[in-house]
Amino acid sequence: MIRDRTIICVASNWEVDPTSKHHVMQMLSRHNNVLWVSYHGTRRPQLNGADARGATSALRRVLRGPQRIGQNFAHFTPMVIPGVTGNALERINRWMVISQIRRVLRQVRKTTNQPIQLWSFAPDVAFLAGQFDEECVVYYCVDEHAEFEGVDRHTTQAAERRLLDSADVVFATSDALFASRSAMHPNVHLVRHGVDDTHFSQAVDRNLAPPADLPRSQGTTIGFFGLLHHWIDIELIASAAQLMPHANFVLIGDPQVDTSVLRSRPNVH
After folding, report:
1. CA neighbours within 13 Å on the CB side: how many for 11?
2. Which long-range contacts (CB under 8 A, 24 or more apart) does 27-32 make?
3. pTM, two decimal places
4. What is the pLDDT of residue 85?
5. How many C-alpha atoms does 244 have within 13 Å on its Cβ side?
6. What is the CA angle 117-65-124, rounded to 5?
7. What's the N-to-C CA distance of the chain in angstroms?
8. Contact 257, 228 (CB under 8 A)
C-alpha cells in the first residue's frame, strides 16, 4: 500500500464528471497527500465556440488558484500559453508549469521530507520528470490520446514515447493499451476500469424508486452512461432506435456533439 507520500497527479480538469482517475486519486488521498494538476497541453485549441468556452473556464480556474477538496487533497490549474510552437515558447511554457507546481507544492505539502511521486494521466508531460526530486514516475494510460479529435497524431505519439522512457511503471486500462505499451516499456500492468460498486449496486434495490425522468412504458431499456463525444457513433444509436421502436434508449451523459438526430426519436431519452 502507498502511504505517507505527496502525489502530484497530472490529469485533465478535476471539475468534470468523475472518471477512473478521480476515483484512483481519491482512494490514494486516504493515506497520502494529493495535488491534482489540471493540465491541457495535448490539444491545440481551435477557433470555435466550444474551445472559447473551454479557454474561459480554464482562465477562471487559473485565477481561483489552489482549491482544497479534502484534508489531503488539493487541485489547481496552472497558467499555460495555449497552442504554442517553437522551442523557445515551449521552454517558457514548461518553465511556467514547473514553477507553478513547485509553488503550490510548498503550500500543500505537509512536510518537506515527505517523499514525492509523480503520476500522469496526460501523455505529454515528460518534461516534469525529475523536476520535483520524486522517487518514481507513474504513467497511467487510460486512452489512445493520439486518436482524439483535434490532436496532432505524430506529435502526441512522440510526446508519449518520451514519457514512457521517463516512467518507472506504466498502468494500462485495456488489453489493446496494455499490448501496445508493453512493446515500449518493460514494466506495464493491466488495470481495468472499475466502478463504485457501493453506489451503483443501489440500482438492484427494489425499494429504490426509479428516477422521475425515466420512461414509464414497459419493455426493454437499453442504457448508456458516459460522455457523448466524437468517439460515440450517434448515427448508429439513432438507427438502432429506429429499428427497435418498442425499446427505450436511455442515454445519461454530457452531450459534446450534435445529438439532434437522437432527440428526434420518440424512444430515445
Report:
1. 28
2. 28/2, 29/70, 29/72, 29/73, 30/72, 31/1, 31/2, 31/3, 31/4, 32/2, 32/3, 32/4, 32/5, 32/6, 32/7, 32/72
3. 0.84
4. 67
5. 14
6. 45
7. 43
8. yes
